[in-house]
Amino acid sequence: MIAKSIDAKSKYTSNHCMRVPILTIMIANAINRSSKGTPGLTPFTKDQFDELVIAAWLHDCGKLIVPEHVMDKSTKLETVCDRLEVINERFEVIRRDIKIHYLEQLQRVKGNDHAKLEKKYVQDIADLDQAKEFIREVNRGGEFLPDDDKQRIRQIASKYSYHDGNKMKPLLTEDEVISLSVSRGTLNDEEREIIQSHVKHTKTMLESLTYPANLQNVPEIAGSHHERMDGKGYPSGKTRSDLTLQARVLMIADIFEALTCADRPYKKAKKLKEVLAIMEDMKNNGHIDPDIYDLFIREKIYLNYARQYLDPGQIDTGE
User: Fold this and answer.
1) How confident is the model at residue 71 (pLDDT cuts 50, 70, 90)?
2) What molecular function terms (GO) are annotated for this protein (predicted)?
């Protein structure tokens, strides 16, 4: 019920809480089957297995507290509404002012100067249209924003201003510049902190419940799914030695589902080869557990999951 509520809250993560437990169980079953030949991966007891499954179902319950306009932020300028519409209105005010200035100058000059003024006017409007289109493009978000694009955002902000009553204001506010300059995805630093806080909320919410003796570790497992092996994760900066095997399994299931999902607002669904390359880097860089990931690959868990839950067009591994 809670998982369905979380998924229903956000159209962009509508299957996440339902699919993470499925993948978690697939990985846990593989550990139980092959752990004899895999040092460091001991079979789960029934109680440990049950704890892991329940934690997987509830791992994102803290998102119930995250504001919808942050969790569902589909563009960089979106808050309660998409501020791109407001900026487009400013562009139209600037376009009007450019035209008024051109017509006023046209009345003051004669002869060949008309052609020069018209040429400049046409170029000014073209530059404005290019700036408007550029802002529209970078507002979408993506995997990487070059430094040159960030510099151009600031140049546009300083180049153009518009009349607002009796005042001249810059086309872009500092907050809008910062939001448009986000390198990955659509969230600025403040919003990212709000999203990340869902893990703390998850643990706090789950710790408020009373558990039978065999399920005492559910809050800890669920509240650790954004930690890393090297201690650079959140919310607690735990390392591999601090994390249970259950938590390390849940991390990989959560990451794989997030990378392969087709419903995130700022990215297309990734194909399997790209996802596996990203996760291989994560393994090598101390992000995810190497033993579990090697098992994930060796047992072809990724492929079994993909055949059941991904679009066939995402499966490009030739298997």
Assistant:
1) confident
2) phosphoric diester hydrolase activity
- What single-letter DSSP state applies at residue 35? G
Dihedral-angle region of residue 40 (phi above 0 means left; psi in -120 to 50 means alpha; beta otherwise): left
For the entire predicted model, the pTM comes to 0.79
CA 198, CA 220: separation in Å to the nearest integer? 14
Label residue 10 left, alpha or beta by phi (over 0 means left) and psi (-120 to 50 means alpha). Answer: beta
| Per-residue three-class SS string for 36-53 | HHCCCCCCCCHHHHHHHH
pLDDT at 188 over 80: yes
* 168-200 core/surface letters (b: 16 or more CB in 10 A; e: else): eebbbeeebbebbbbeebbbbeebeebbbbbbe
- Kindly state whether residues 229 and 127 are assigned to the same domain: no
The two structure tokens encoding residue 134: 């550029």
Question: For the ranges 88-92, 95-99, 122-126, 161-165, which has the lowest average pLDDT?
Answer: 161-165
Taking residue 316's Cβ as centre, other Cβ atoms within 10 Å add up to 12
Do 193 and 294 sit in the same domain of this protein? yes
Range(s) of the domain holding residue 101: 84-180
Residue 152 has pLDDT above 90, yes or no: yes
Task: Kindly state the average pLDDT of the residues 40-48.
Answer: 91
In terms of domains, do 201 and 299 share one? yes
Q: What percent of the chain has pLDDT over 90?
A: 69
- Residues 75, 141: Cα–Cα separation, whole Å: 6
